[in-house]
Amino acid sequence: MPSELFRLTVHEAARLLARREVSSTELTRAVLDRIEAVQGRLNAFVTVTAELALEQAREADERLTRGEGVTPLTGIPAAIKDVICTRGVRTTCGSRMLENFVPPYDATVIERLKAAGLVMVGKTNMDEFAMGSSGENSYFGPTRNPWDEERVPGGSSSGSAAAVAADACLYALGSDTGGSIRQPAALCGIVGLKPTYGRVSRYGLVAFASSLDQIGPMTKDVTDAALVLQAIAGHDPRDSTSAPVEVPDYAASLVPDLKGLRLGVPREYMGEGVEEGVRRAVEEAIDRLQELGAEVDREVSLPSTPYALACYYIIAPSEASANLARYDGVKYGYSYTEGASMWENMERTRQFGFGAEVKRRIMLGTYALSAGYYDAYYLKAQKVRTLIRREFEAAFQRCDALVTPVSPTPAFRLGEKVADPLQMYLSDVFTIPVNIAGLPSISVPCGFSQGLPVGLQVIGRPFDEPTILRVAYAYEQATDWHLRRAPL
Ligand code: GLN
Fold first, then answer.
1. Residue 125 neighbours by CB under 8 Å, 6+ apart
2. End-to-end distance of the chain based on CA atoms, in angstroms?
3. For ligand 1, what atom is nearest to the CA of residue 435?
4. How far is the CA of 469 from the centre of ligand 1 (A)?
5. What is the pLDDT of residue 2?
6. Residues of the chain with pLDDT under 70
7. Is 130 close to ligand 1, i.e. is its CB under 6 Å away?
8. Is the Cα torsion angle 206, 212, 215, 217 positive or negative in sign?
9. Angle, alpha carbons 130-135-85 (nearest 5°)
């Protein structure tokens, strides 16, 4: 039995728990101690739910002892991004607006994890309403990167990524609208998977951009990503965009060779703007994939890639402006009540309740949707969205999966990009097109640049999570990047 239980992966811990060599209570205590040791430095959590975790661990131990209803996640300590509703536990979205919001219900993913034997150690820090790429847009202060505390962990699932990388939980849930699972996973040296749009229920996920949002696992290795996805995937009648598509056995796709697979490297993803160390790490990873039996196609092109960012920054803010209209200080959340009129109260509620980036998005979206500009912006962006989708479809006629960098650079310094939103937005150039097309994609560690982790992105056909898991797993098994731990 390892002396530092918090360092275990989900599958390692599950084996020890099933054999009763370790109890969930012991494991949970070890993780809670670890959180206490690193939270002051990283600020990965908004809320730590120690009491709840120990109670859930006790229940899990009973289940494990009886040997009934045991799943690979039973009794495993997890951290949940604070954008996912948890009954009785405040869910802030990293915003002053929801600082004291306690949801009266669980998100579907939480219901499912509870049925599987969830032990929730806390809710993780994030960019406000999931808008950001650095974790710096949180009302609760920035999260720091465990590899270098002067650097950002990426965002918006900043706390989830930092917590997994720092062994402050065994796995976490994140959400990804334009890269928010994959980019922080890459910057923190962990695995992050954004499922196909519709694969995982969004019921109880606080909406940012409803046509792009998706919940997914953030884990220490690919096997764990498959296990967590298995538990949360599937149709949900409470989310009309969730797909009635059968859920395959994801663990069955974890095979260590790639014979017969054709992988495309889209030309537009390896060009200008990719930092040298990132390029080198990704090129070496592609060579490795070839050695593992994959055929590599370098003639793939996705010509509309340069327009993806502009398209996203019309569509996502437009949807956000509609989704965030509900925060009016009347129904729930922060409420300013000192004004002379109802209108003043509503204005002040939104003035004080939202941070700068959220306001910027609401204004962008409201402008793009306004009567005189709708055709020029929103409608045009929807057309570009169709083009992007079609180009991916064409690429998947020739290839089974696409491989690219996740982020053009490794983790940047805290404060480096806050004054320049465009620079911040560029951090997601390679992840955003994937959300626009609704595809599944995984980020897996593939080396280091300037001593900081680099991620490889593997993009798949709709609902073909098995293939991206297979590619990521084979690569991971042939390398040891996922075994490197942050020097905390
Ligand atoms: N960084 C992107 C944004 O700010 C993506 C965020 C996300 O995926 N939630 O919109």
1. 43, 44, 45, 46, 82, 94, 135, 138, 140, 141, 143, 158, 159, 162
2. 22
3. 8
4. 23
5. 59
6. 1-2
7. yes
8. negative
9. 40
Spatial distance between the Cα atoms of 253 and 398, rounded to a whole number of angstroms: 21
> pTM for the whole thing?
0.98
Of 83, 138, 152, 156, which is best to mutate to test ligand 1, by the most ligand atoms within 8 angstroms of its C-beta? Answer: 156
Contact 96, 140 (CB under 8 A): no
Could you tell me the two tokens for 185? 């996973």
| H or E stretch covering 340 | none
Q: Tell me, what's the pLDDT at 367?
A: 97
**Residues assigned a catalytic role:** 81, 156, 180
**Phi/psi-derived region of residue 329, left when phi > 0, alpha when psi is between -120 and 50, beta in every other case:** left
**Cα–Cα dist 156/320, whole Å:** 15
* Among candidate residues 104, 77, 458, the one with its CA nearest the CA of residue 282: 458
Which ligand 1 atom minimizes the distance to the CA of 180? 8
- pLDDT at position 3 is 72
How is residue 330 written in tokens?
């009347």
The DSSP line for 64-109 is HHHT-S--TTTT-EEEEETTB-BTTB---TTSGGGTT---SS--HH
CA atoms within 13 A on the CB side of 211: 14
Does ligand 1 lie within 6 Å of residue 179's CB atom?
Answer: yes
